[in-house]
Design goal:
It comes from Schaalia naturae. Pfam families: 2-Hacid_dh, 2-Hacid_dh_C. Belongs to the D-isomer specific 2-hydroxyacid dehydrogenase family. With about 350 residues, the protein is of the alpha/beta class. It is built from 12 helices and 14 strands. It folds into 2 domains: about 150 residues, NAD(P)-binding Rossmann-like Domain (Rossmann fold); about 180 residues, NAD(P)-binding Rossmann-like Domain (Rossmann fold, 3-Layer(aba) Sandwich), CATH 3.40.50.720.
């Protein structure tokens, strides 16, 4: 049977990135391409899917005659799945297939795969950069100089930052990103405390210690960095009480998910001086509203949720996804399947 793959691309997972990965994994496989202008235009939520971008009708038209959709951000909704009975597999080049209606895909017998860990290196490196910036106030000083200032008083003891070496760094979440951050900080000389009730590592790098409660990490850390996945139970995991329990002059960094932090409490702690500095790549509302109070805080560094954005991350996601497509079309099981209950039936049908 001759298969055809739709390369449903955007401006990060570009047509070329997807095509190159597919050609490497399945040379000569026919494909066609559709693309959006994401990230120029932000994500939307559709019925049953989140953080998606693209027109459902346009996607439906492009999928006719294709049995695989190789995508990143397009909405794989009930509407799309119902209109494409020939679709056998959807591969999403993201850490989780949030833009796929998994229940609908399962009902329609469509296998869904995704690409966990695709941007772990990029996010970990971005996090460490944010920590270093917050600790030494690099962007803050840069902004002052650009305004025509020469902040000599920034050398005062009460204004200078801290060194990572010798500091206690708390890491909440020890997955693909958090474990990398922990290793890097330990290599820089920090004493690293990790809290993650689900992680059970057999070995830990020198300088990394697991603790059994979030409270122990929060109350001990000069630097606190978050790497937990968002779920129904951890909204405002770092709330006003947790921030108050952090050591005076501590640094808070969040390059995970905006819901983990009470940003109103952060503003208060920055204004009072209880927090020396903070750095955030994600927020509870994105894009960040123009009137968000945290925009007025001088001692905070912010980036627009691009911690995982690197060329290697895009290429790695495409390679992981293409390998899963090759496995599935070859009669096997994709390594990263979101609905494995569909696999046995789908394998029999091929």
């Amino acid at each position: 049977m001759m298969h055809q793959v739709l390369l449903a691309a955007d401006e990060f997972l570009t047509p070329k990135v997807l095509a190159d990965a597919l050609e490497e994994a399945l040379p000569g496989t026919p494909s066609r391409t559709i693309a959006t202008d994401w990230p120029e235009t932000p994500f939307h939520d559709y019925a049953g899917v989140h953080e998606a971008h693209g027109n459902e009708d346009q996607l439906i038209a492009a999928l006719q005659g294709c049995d695989v959709c190789f995508s990143h951000t397009w909405p794989i909704s009930e509407k799309v799945l119902s209109a494409c009975p020939g679709l056998a597999m959807v591969t999403i080049c993201r850490g989780g297939p949030v833009n796929v209606d998994i229940d609908a895909a399962t009902r329609h017998g469509v296998v869904v795969s995704f690409t966990p860990g695709r941007n772990a290196v990029a996010t970990a490196e971005h996090t460490v950069g944010m920590i270093m910036d917050a600790a030494r106030q690099i962007c803050h000083r840069d902004r002052e100089i650009r305004r025509g200032q020469w902040p000599s008083d920034a050398y005062r003891y009460d204004r200078v930052g801290i060194e990572i070496s010798g500091s206690t760094a708390g890491v909440v979440g020890y997955g693909a990103v958090g474990s990398r951050v922990a290793r890097i900080l330990a290599a820089m000389g920090a004493r690293v405390l990790v809290f993650d009730p689900w992680a059970k590592p057999e070995t830990l790098p020198e300088g990394v210690v697991f603790v059994d409660s979030l409270e122990k990490v929060v109350t001990s850390s000069h630097i606190l960095t978050l790497h937990a996945r968002a779920n129904a139970d951890n909204r405002h995991l770092i709330d006003r009480a947790a921030i108050a329990a952090m050591p005076e002059g501590a640094i808070l960094v969040n390059c995970a998910r905006g819901q983990l932090v009470d940003y109103g409490a952060v503003v208060e702690a920055l204004d009072s001086g209880h927090l020396f500095a903070a750095a955030f790549d994600c927020f509870d509302a994105e894009p960040l509203p123009a009137d968000a109070p945290i925009r007025a805080c001088e001692n905070v560094t912010m980036t627009p949720h691009l911690g995982g954005a690197s060329r290697q991350a895009a290429e790695r996601a495409a390679r992981i996804g293409a390998a899963d497509i090759a496995a599935f079309l070859g009669g096997g099981a994709p390594l990263h399947c979101a609905n494995p209950e569909v696999l046995s039936h789908a394998t029999n049908e091929r």
